[in-house]
Amino acid sequence: MTVELIGAIALVVGLIGLFARPNFIVYAFFGSTLLGAAAAVILTSLGGTTIQPAHLLLGFLSVRLLADREIRFRALQAVSPGSPGFWLLVTVAYSTITAYLMPRLFQGQTLAYAVRAQGGENYLSPLGPTTSNLTQSIYFIGDCVCFLVLAGFGASEAGKKCLGQAALMCVILNLAFGFLDLVTFATNTSELMSFIRNSTYSILSDTESAGFKRIVGSFVEASSFGYWTLGYFAFATTLWLHGVGSRLTLSLGILSLLALLFSTSTTAYVGLAGYLTVQFAIVFFNFLFGQIRREMFVFMICAPFVLVLLVIAICLNDVSYAYFSELLNQFVLNKMSTSSGIERSRWNEQAIQNFVDTFGFGAGNGSVRASSFPVAVIGSLGILGAASYVMFLLSIWFRKKSVPPSGVPAVHIAARSACLAWLIAASASAGFIDLGLPFFAFAALGCLDSPAVRTQVPSAREAVSYR
Asked: Where along the chain do its domains lie?
């Protein structure tokens, strides 16, 4: 086991967070979720498996917040039957059990692509227990802990405000890391960011495409940066649509959109198209059958107009038309005909075959590598696990109506919007059932207006009788 510099920093921050106000460790944790290329600890005994700063700080976050009786009780309420936390807990419990059982029960009866590539290559091998079953299960359990702890913390008004500000901080920090990536590349000082790019995964931070630098920010590659930036763009844009900090959120939304476009990530482009379509449909539906804010009306009118204007301007200029045509063909239209696209199609085909070969039970979490979140879920968890996972995801967006979307509740809508954007993008390219800590942190924020979440903490006698 090797503790890296960024790991030592995370340990110090975590220890300080144990004695500081809860807000400190919450901000630190949210900020650490951006360090996608960083390894706090490298476990050499597990083939170079890494522990990221976010997972390290998740432990400190849990200890600090659950030390409070009120937060413990609210976290317990977050798993009440029918709530999002309940369905997530069921899914995690099922996936953990099947991660151990299925690779042994169906050992050698089907082939699966290795979850962790060896030497940069993915290959088919007979199904059997691997370290990935353990590591992927730990990641998924961490997702559940993150959701429940933050749901308990955010059940109070002060907690909601803190989570909302921490989420907005992530949008700003992501843009700052993207700017630093461009500056260090232009000045040949990329090594200055090496202490947060120390993961054992292949880090593609100096690649160029279509004549410009692909932005990677604090992540391992442009695809990861584009994927996470999509959610932050959705969060900032939705806040603007609901009139929250209009100048700031509009600026952050525009900058995030530009950063996303310059990441040249196919996943981000597909996710962006899907998200904007859904968002436009929601705004248009509210326009027809309800009331909309001025910002929503501006979005509904200006978005199609700006899109058409950009297309016309590009088509009228031969140089720009050739440039964007090449870009579109390279990253979208001809993507599936490339070696990468063909390989990803094979992953999905084999994941579906794993589902069939295991009679619908799935091969177990950590046994299957795919290139689409829904395919990864059915290939790994089978029908039962997929059903509970779907119930969790649906419960994020569909519930009984609560207070009107103004003030703090608008933050919940924005958080759900970010989760929607990430889910759309994950459906196009995600390889595993783990959607990442940011998704579950934002999901916790998005579920705080659920009627299932009680904000009144009982007396000590009531708490004992409840347990």
From this structure: 2-466
